[in-house]
Design brief:
Elements (H helix, E strand, L loop, with lengths): L1 E3 L19 E3 H13 L16 H5 L6 H13 L4 E12 L4 E10 L2 E10 L11
Antiparallel strand pairs: 1-2, 3-4, 4-5
Amino acid sequence: MNDFKLNTTTWDIEQNDGKSGWLTVSSNEAIAQNMRQRLQTVVGEWFLNTTIYVDLFDLIFVKGTPAAVIESHLKDIISNTIGFIAFQKFNLDINTQLRTLTLDFVCETVDGVIQYNRLISENNSNLFTTTV
């Protein structure tokens, strides 16, 4: 798998410094980048594919949603990423008082292993700390 390399802060396509053309990513780095994109897309954000999204405000941060439903939703998004094979570890920590969710997983892909850790807050849903 190959893709344009995206800046992980701005999500803009990275240019090759001082040279013409764009930087690219391949193999496991491309799969990890695609996985991060899928996990950071919220409902209705990308008009070209409305089936890829994290349902932050109608599922995850709604009072009373069972943890198993949230876990299933997130696992579906991750496991449907091209190149995904299997989870080696999956932890979901939901703090209902602070209205935060921490997603921590390790998964096997066709090109290696991806480690991912992300904190999501209802007040700051774009707070993403990811280790890949």
